[in-house]
Design brief:
This protein is an alpha/beta fold. Helices cover 38% and strands 17% of the residues. The chain contains ten helices and ten strands. The strands form two sheets. It has an eight-stranded parallel beta sheet. Helix 2 links the parallel strand 2 and strand 3.
Length: 306
């Protein structure tokens, strides 16, 4: 397993920060095409809570994102030479006509300050025309595609209102591998209601064993957050499930890491929830403390593997 920061330095010579973008897309399980209401955990901004306003142009959002990351950037890299990841994050970022997608993705890819175009989407929104667009953009700049799988268990998928079966994910991975992307990234949520530890590890194991070339695959492990205004928040308040505590979650991530191939990139270990709307677990709001604990756990797991 390779941490994202290690991968970026290895491939690009520096840490590159993401700029979250909201281009006004929606999702097929919101507009009635596949379902209604969206996923039960999804916020009103389609998980794009840290993106700029969708009313701003793409260029305006990128410039605003550059300002937001300025304090995090290394002083060794002059501001004019800094590069970024254009992260099409909010809702389903391939759920639009191919020509509209081409215009947006190409606008990002053709900028000198953008090193990577990252596209968050659903496996059921990668039709032939969309794949052609992604392949075309990938010739300009490296494209990452992020797939919201969350779980391999159909009962859990039904509960979260994912609205597509597991074989759709399998086909999406196969089709994206044919394009030759440098990273196909799968999102998994740890702590879904009703899932045991073994069920969660089964999902991680499945994703870890899926890619033909693990060096071109990545995984995002997301702690289940309960956000105000979601269907999940109603069930939580009604006592239908509990969120994970910090010590258990840290240990669980360590177990997940041991299942990953050495070449696979770990893009995320926990994820952030907007503190203004976060209901549970509140400990996740202390990002520095959580990341320090996770890094310590992962370091120990790496040493034991060696």
């Amino acid at each position: 397993m390779i941490l994202l920061s290690e991968y970026l330095k290895q491939e690009y010579g520096e840490k590159i920060y993401k700029i979250s973008l909201d281009c006004g897309f929606t999702c097929p399980n919101r507009d009635g095409t596949a379902g209604v209401g969206g996923c039960v955990f999804c916020s009103g901004k389609g998980s794009g809570d840290f993106a700029s306003s969708k009313k701003a142009t793409l260029a305006e959002q990128i410039e605003a994102g550059k300002v937001q990351t300025r304090g995090k950037q290394s002083k060794d890299v002059p501001e004019g030479n800094r590069r970024y990841i254009a992260y099409f994050q909010a809702f389903t970022s391939t759920y639009a006509p191919a020509e509209q997608l081409r215009s947006l993705f190409m606008e990002a890819a053709e900028r000198d300050d953008i090193a990577i175009v990252s596209i968050a989407t659903r496996p059921d929104c990668l039709g032939g025309e969309v794949l052609k667009v992604i392949e075309e953009v990938n010739r300009i700049k490296p494209v990452w595609v992020e797939l919201g799988l969350q779980t391999i268990h159909e009962k859990s998928a039904e509960y979260i209102n994912r609205c597509y079966p597991l074989p759709v994910y399998d086909r999406a991975v196969e089709n994206l591998e044919k394009i030759g992307l440098s990273q196909i990234i799968t999102h998994l949520i740890l702590g879904l209601p009703g899932e045991s530890e073994e069920m969660m590890l089964e999902s991680v194991r499945y994703v870890a064993e899926k890619p033909k070339d693990p060096s071109k695959a990545g995984i995002k492990l997301q702690l289940l957050h309960v956000i105000e205004g979601t269907k999940l928040s109603e069930d939580f308040r009604n006592g239908r499930f509990e969120t994970l505590d910090m010590d258990y979650y840290v240990s669980l991530v360590g177990k997940c890491v041991r299942l990953l191939p050495e070449e696979m990139v770990l893009h995320r270990m926990t994820g952030d929830g907007d503190k203004k709307t976060l209901i549970s677990p509140l400990w996740s709001g202390d990002k520095k403390r959580v990341l320090n604990a996770l890094m310590k756990e992962i370091g120990a797991r790496r040493q034991s593997r060696d």
